[in-house]
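Aim 2 progress update. The chain analyzed this quarter is reproduced below.
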Amino acid sequence: MNRGSRSRELRSDTAASPVNLRRIAGFLTPYWRRFILILIAVAVSAVLGLIPPLLVRSILDDAIAGGDGGLLKGLAGGLVATAIAAGLAGVARSYLNTVVSQRIMYDLKVRMYRLLHSLSLRFFTDHRTGEMMSRLTSDISGIDTVISGTLVTIASNMFILTSTLIIMLALSWQFTLLSLSLLPWLILPTLTVGRLRRRLRTNRQQQNAAVNAQMAENLSISGVLLVKTFNRERTVLNRFDHDTHQLMDLQVREALVGRWYFMLLALVTTAGPALIYWSGGLQVIREVGLEGGMTVGTVIAFVLLMGRLYGPATDLMSLHVDVMTSLAYFERIFDYLDLTPDIADALGAVVMPPLQGRVRFEHVSLEYVPGIRAVDDVTVEVEPGQLVALVGPSGGGKTSMTYLIPRLYDATSGTVWLDGHDIRGVTLESLRRQIGVVTQETFLFNTTVAENLRFAKENATLEEMEAACRAAYIADVINALPDRYDTIVGERGYRLSVGEKQRLAIARIVLKDPRIFLLDEATASLDSHSERAVQTALEPLIRGRTSIVIAHRLSTILAADVILYISHGQVLEQGSHAELFAKGEHYARLYEEQFKQTKMVIN
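Predicted structure tokens:
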């Protein structure tokens, strides 16, 4: 398959994932009550923030200038009380804000994880695991700042700006206009900086996903073994160093973008108070002793209020930069959330009744890549209880045919029938519940033997697991483990041999008790003892079930009721061993090339 191409199976609801406020707001709507409480806490904090400058004005102009120690004590106590009240309001706001942001990220992670599990194998063969992990972790974590900081910052700064301007106008409308005249220097550079940081953020996330994908592959047990056995540590390290260095460069560039802009912000926020001190100080000097003249307390209070004006104004301007850069996260998240799986329950799908096990392919074709058929117009029928062996050259389409029965892929054309039911018209859960699959590469989770077994039957008892393991000829191995069924099998089951893992996988299928059994019989690479053990475990499992086996072992082929010779996606021959051998064509040549020597050894 072409890894570089996007999955054909996935249809996007939109050509690109549009990021708009309404769509983002949809994730916030379930928590509107908490947002109201957050806004109340923000309003309380904004009001409390206005009190200290006014108290300072009274301390300077009334208490100190008037020599009133009692008033001074009361005003100083008011400053402390206001700080405590503002701190409590801030704690309440932070708590509510954190809870909401974490819940939204939880919703997104669960929704994306559920979506990924609804996709067919086509998606996972076309996309790297590290890329998916990056979307689930770093991208969703990246929007935490927007949810927990941006929205509250907007509300908080709007409250602060409005209330501060009202008080500033009451103190001096002239100074207020002078303060506002500097704001354009805070606003003009914002758009350019925002666009640049957004582009760099997108590039950084893509590079970060690539690095994560590389680590996921190279640090897996299979990857580490491959690297070590081929002595390619230097190559892997050099590639990782190169990609990580590129990521570092992008992070540095992103961090430095707008530094000159923020230096300008710092200059303006310093120049504003300096102008007020200068002009206000001159006015105080001119009006010394005049009734109602400008006072030192008023100038100091106004400068303190300017901090409450420029701070929120700067935050709002910087907020635009943050929002623009954070859109890169939302775009990558929505890019996945917009994907629609092609394999899903059809409208009106019915529950598949208990199967007898009749399988029919009717003019079935499958294309992984458009125009290239992995299965090509196959029509074949399997009777209930039959053992069918699929043989033929590697890459001929044997595994692809088995993928179609449990709808791991859907046929590009034609129909797969089970007991007369079009499998696209039944629910996936009821279909797959009655099909057992043992793949060529056995996968075990890094947990206990019991948990791996219960993956087939969640409520399986110890007695049921022991019976299944005895049937799979793996019970003695498990009983010899340190903690028996509570033993951790290790990453991908590496504490067990290949043959033991296969027998444990067979025990898992015994617990599931399917009516149709699909097996990629990968016993060719096993030693003779393990091969016999696995084959012995398989024989009772196959008996009485409809079994379709990708056969590598001569005894399986000879025991099959029907042999299908498959090449280039087509069933070229069908029949028993004797029938096909007598024809002297494809199967007979395969037998002569691959199995005759084995037959001589058996005899």
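Residues 101 and 148 are 5 Å apart (CA to CA). The first helix runs from residue 21 to 28. These observations will guide the mutagenesis experiments scheduled for the next reporting period.
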